[in-house]
């Protein structure tokens, strides 16, 4: 739909309630910024009609009569069978299933390690596996990975949000997960070869910390863990290094939540483990926008240096995936899309993203790694250049 928002006769802006006429109550709330660098004030010749409080970007033709809203590109396409897993699929009584880690097994089948909440509120992980990764899931008839409070008291209130990384050097899968204790959420690690027997390493990042995953290989001789500590000053993404997966240090800020009205202001976190590409580590991360009624979880993109993962090369300016479908907008927690895992097809480009929808079900969306990188090039900026401008201002 192409609607001229600026009315050159009255100097006002049309609104959704009165598309046939200009809104007469334009007291100074919106400043329309055109791509040629001029403002609605300059082009209208009415400097008193607009204020400085809210900025709306508009894609405009040369003529004032034909500004149109910028159309976004769809990067992830929802599977028509969504949601692919709900509580109705479970072989025992439970409340909800969501936020699954994902990996491909040696036989090519897809494995999901699903976060399950039972009707008491207790949290555990349950294994589901099947060849095509869409339907016919073979689900364990009892929890696969349960809290072991006697040996690991940090799991007292449950385990959440598993993220799976295959570690070729160890010939094992590493599962980073949130262990919830009386002191809050922390980051724990476990190793497994078959998703039946797990070697728990215990808590490695103390509360409050979550949204963690390991990189699949050492960086300059050390293992690397991406995680999201919470502080009174905000929730930002960090990276830490370890010689043995147990002792961690050399902590570095990786990606900072923005401030103000941004979609990813104040609170961000990594979603699934980063994707290693020839250009760098491609991260899908979530930003949380707080509203008077709740919060909205949306997804964005950033690219990091392969050998210095704390160095952000490009960061997208806008979100690229957000709650839109009914099963994403309504559930135990409304307006949430939260992926913890993905698989990559044999073509090396198609990504199958498994995400929690409204903390109530698991859904699937398909995308292209090449398309994600191209979108980032077109819709992102260099964090280093941005930091220099901030320091100079």
Class by SSE composition = mainly beta
Give the end-to-end Cα distance, rounded to a whole number of Å: 39 Å
Mean of pLDDT: 84
Oligomer: single chain
| Main sheet: strands, sense, barrel | 6 strands, antiparallel
What is the CATH top level name of the largest domain? Mainly Beta
Q: Note the total helix count.
A: 4
Give the second-level CATH assignment, the architecture of the largest domain. Answer: 5 Propeller
Q: Give the H and E element order.
A: EHEEEEEEEEEEEEEEEEEEEEEHEEEHEH
The poorly predicted ranges are 1-69, 388-393
Radius of gyration computed on alpha carbons: 23 Å
Number of domains: 2
Percentage of residues assigned to helices: under 10%
Cα shape: globular
Short description:
By secondary structure, this protein is mainly β.
Blueprint (SSEs and pairs):
Blueprint: E1 30-34, H1 40-44, E2 54-60, E3 67-68, E4 77-78, E5 96-104, E6 110-117, E7 123-130, E8 138-139, E9 159-167, E10 172-181, E11 184-192, E12 198-205, E13 209-214, E14 223-231, E15 234-235, E16 237-242, E17 249-255, E18 268-270, E19 275-277, E20 280-290, E21 295-304, E22 312-316, H2 326-329, E23 337-344, E24 350-357, E25 361-368, H3 369-379, E26 380-381, H4 383-392
Description:
The chain has 2 domains: 1-71, no CATH class; 77-392, Tachylectin-2, Chain A (5 Propeller), CATH 2.115.10.20. With 393 residues, it is mainly beta. It is built from 4 helices and 26 strands.
Keywords:
mainly beta, six-stranded antiparallel beta sheet, 42% strand, 393 residues, disordered C terminus, 26 strands, five-stranded antiparallel beta sheet, Tachylectin-2, Chain A, globular
